[in-house]
Each structure stands twice: as structure tokens, then as C-alpha cells.
Write a structure and sequence with these properties.
Helix content is 50%, strand content 0%. It has 175 residues and is mainly alpha-helical. It has a domain of 105 residues: Orthogonal Bundle (Cytochrome Bc1 Complex, Chain D, domain 2), CATH 1.10.760.10. The longest helix is centred in the N-terminal third of the chain and has 26 residues.
Length: 175
């Protein structure tokens, strides 16, 4: 009986001690909050798993606009005005992207896997990210800033980042 009481007291102490330790860890400013801090172990995985599930659950399956020169040029204008500051231009990554956490993908550069920007993502996934933004990343929601057509046009443009673009679109996304 005495052993059971000790186990229950130890369990209760653990229930109190663990939240208290976490509280003091947070209150004394120990978690990584600066963009230059080393991230928590598995931080990116913890964030990417639910984000990917949510995007794939909610993203539109079809694109309401055709992939044509007019939409690519309009998308390039939207990109130049709203996206280039963080995501860069063709052959011109931005300096600010290196100071953000998580790092901002340069949408006209090849990544480690050889893919240019998000050109391997479905257009609906890019549209979802443009429309809704991504929490705790610096990526804002453009839902109230751009029209539906503008969000689709920039998404269509980014899906073609690894392909030749019309000359007028290329001028807008080049330095």
C-alpha cells in the first residue's frame, strides 16, 4: 500500500513538475524565437505534416483559368508587384530571404532536388498558399489583397517557372 501511495505521489508530482518546467523555460526566453536561432529538433517536420494535409484537403482540384500568354503575363505583373521582394526574380535571389525563418523559397531558382521554385506543385496547391498564407512563416494571405483571377494567374505563372515564358512575362520577372 505504501508503495502505491509513493507511485501516486510521484505521478502527481510529475504532472505538476513538467508543466512548471515548460512554463519557466518559456518565461525566461529560452525557446528559439529569433530568425538566426537554431530551430527545435524536428520543427520543420512538425509543421510540414499538418500543413501538407490541410493543403491537400482544401486545395482546388481544377484551375478556372486557362494557361495562356495573357494569364502568364498578368501573373508576372502580380508576381513582380507582390511576390518578388521576398521570392526573388529570375537569376536574382533576394537578400531578405536569407534573413527570414523559415527560409523563403526563391521561386525562380533550382532547389536541391533540381526543381525550379514550385513548378512541380499542383497549381491548386500554389493557389491555396497564395490565398491563405502560411502561419509563422512570413507568407501573408492575399485573399483580401488580390482578386481570384490574380491569385490564379500568379499560381499558373509559378507552375511554369521551369518552362519558357512569353517575352512580356519574362521581362516582368527578370532583373
Amino acid at each position: 500500500m505504501k508503495r502505491l501511495v509513493l507511485v501516486l505521489v510521484g505521478f502527481a508530482a510529475g504532472l505538476i513538475a513538467i508543466p512548471a518546467i515548460i512554463y519557466f523555460y518559456l518565461v525566461f526566453g529560452n525557446p528559439p524565437v529569433a530568425t538566426s536561432d537554431t530551430p527545435f529538433p524536428f520543427e520543420s517536420r512538425i509543421v510540414k505534416i499538418p500543413m501538407a494535409a490541410r493543403i491537400h484537403r482544401d486545395m482546388p482540384a481544377t484551375t478556372p483559368l486557362p494557361m495562356n500568354d495573357a494569364n502568364l503575363i498578368a501573373g508576372a505583373a502580380v508576381y513582380q508587384h507582390n511576390c518578388a521582394f521576398c521570392h526573388g526574380l529570375r537569376s536574382a535571389p533576394t537578400a531578405i530571404s536569407k534573413t527570414m525563418f523559415p527560409r523563403v523559397p526563391q521561386l525562380w531558382s533550382k532547389h536541391k532536388n533540381g526543381v525550379v521554385g514550385v513548378s512541380d506543385d499542383p497549381v491548386g496547391e500554389t493557389y491555396w498558399k497564395v490565398k491563405n498564407g502560411i502561419r509563422l512563416s512570413g507568407m501573408p494571405s492575399y485573399d483580401s489583397l488580390l482578386s481570384e483571377d490574380q491569385m490564379w494567374q500568379v499560381s499558373i505563372l509559378l507552375s511554369q517557372a521551369d518552362k519558357p515564358l512569353p517575352a512580356d512575362a519574362l521581362k516582368l520577372v527578370s532583373p
